[in-house]
Structure prediction request, 294 residues.
Amino acid sequence: MLVLLASAPFLLSFTAGPNYRNVSVDAIVNVTQSLPEVLSVLINDGSGNITLNAGTTTLITCNATIRDYNGGGTLANVTATFYDNNTASEGSPDDNNNHYSNTSCTQVNVNGYYANYTCTFNVYYYANNATWVCNVTATDTYDFNGSDSGSNYNTTAINPVLALNVTSPIDYGDLAVGDTSGAIEANVTNFGNRDINVTVYGYGATPGDGLAMVCQVGNITIANERYSLNSADTWAAMTPLASTPAYIANLTLPQQTNDTQAVINSTYWRLYVPPNPFGQCNGTVVFQAEEANP
Prediction:
């Protein structure tokens, strides 16, 4: 009688060649920890080049998608730097002109191997007009002999901002017909990220009307309002205001580079009251930022 014995198959971990001339042996490892990978970085949701808000800060956002095969929840920390690629690098010290850091980005969500983080920067109005890099680094809770992070980056550009601010109003006070005012100071501040020159023009009621001020009775023609960079200049030595933009000679305001000191220059104004207006008089002086001549 023939008896067939059944048994579970035996899985060999090697393969032998003819008469065991060679043997192929399986190599096995189980990787229990893997480095995090920053898969993508999106700056301001991919909206394009950045125009900074004049005279204040602008919120810049870098959104990062990160993969960690140990699970997105095992990330220890996510950090980011935002820097001018021409004058700084990832490891440069923070400087409002060219380098910003976020040492603790915000977790948005975790889904299996993946996690999304948001890294924000309050960038000042005088940050350089240049190509900028946002670099995001993700760190795992496991110690990979000092190499426990992964990073990725994206680039954008900060546009030139030509902007200024002026102390207001230019108030000449109470004057009689035939009087000339004292020198009234009007300070001009660079509110952008470029060196600027300044043009000025004026009008009484509407641009181009040839007036400095419109009064309750009568008006004051535009050449009677004058300006200078020297407070000691007499009205006769000053430059008459015009109805079309004219550069203020020798006035250049450089881009701010000192984080604690704004760039401010003074202008001085005088008004002569010709015959024969009366009452409250009002007009407008327009200061405009222009790209500085090289």
User: Anything to note?
Assistant: The CA atoms of residues 54 and 167 lie 16 Å apart.
